[in-house]
Amino acid sequence: MNSNAWGPTGETPLDVLYDSTNIIGSTVICGFSYGIVFTMFCICFYYLVLQFKLERNRTRQAVFNMVYIIITFILATLYVAANARTTQLAYVNNRNFPGGPNQYAIYIFDQPVTTFGLVAFFAANWFTDALLIWRLWVIYQSTYYVKYVIILPGFLFLTSMGHTDQASQYLGVVAMLVESSALYTIWAIIFLGLYIVNHPVQYIFLASLAEVQVLAPLLIIFRVSRGRAWGTSTERTLTTIRAKSVSNRISIHRMNGSRNTSGTLDIELQGTKTGSQLAESF
């Protein structure tokens, strides 16, 4: 029996590849990333409750962060629900749509179920950007150039809506990646590149992009709840560390210069002594 006889009709191999990556992204990848978000949400919620109970001077911050992660988690859940419904319509209810499920997903792009998912996606994106701008303000508020640091991110946000122990928590690679929300940025850049060249793998990254953009602020809030997040003193600490590093390099350079100078003098003295001895022998 020819197995190709049971394949999709009226679709090119490229259409089938698009359908394959779309369903993998919409089911496996989306579900896996949502599971990570759910786990991180539970961990953050637990530590925020502890912060609320044990640290009376930070109860207001704990409540604010609790409300924030609840809202973003709801948005992530709504997106997953809309994505699951769209996948069901495309691959089950309307499987014989001309051009295949991928074309059907494009066809219902302006339908309520798709709009519902897009609203949840962009709302989560706004919340993520707002948190990053707030973190910038927290870190740079004590500096004179804070307004210059905030202007561009703030403008983009409005547009989108319309090595010591003391320094280890600041200079660690993980800390820098989390505080800069690099996970979401890298994920979005990869998706954008694949989208521009219209590569089928774009659906793998698109399906999980909404969850990744929720996961990024959850990681930041996790560090905040543990008291390890960057704060107002971070900028001064980093500046001090850089100044000490430069000072140490200058000191080492001077020491090396002194040693080289001493060595040169020794050689010159030895050379002079040898010359005098040779003169005496003549």
Notes on the protein architecture:
By secondary structure, the chain is mainly alpha-helical. The chain is built from ten helices and no strands. It has helices at residues 13-54, 59-93, 101-107, 112-140, 146-161, 165-171, 173-179, 182-196, 202-225, 234-281. Helix 1 (13-54) packs parallel to helix 9 (202-225), helix 2 (59-93) crosses helix 3 and helix 2 packs antiparallel against helix 4 (112-140). 27% of the residues are buried. The model is unreliable at 163-180, 241-247 and 261-282 (pLDDT under 50).
Tally of DSSP helical segments = 10
- Tally the beta strands: 0
Largest sheet: number of strands, sense, barrel closure: none
Order of helices and strands: HHHHHHHHHH
Mean pLDDT, to the nearest integer, reads 73
CA-based shape: elongated
CA-atom Rg in angstroms: 30 Å
Strand content: under 5%
As a percent range, the share of helical residues equals over 70%
Oligomeric nature of the chains: single chain
Distance between the termini: 110 Å
Low-confidence stretches: 163-180, 241-247, 261-282
Structural class: mainly alpha
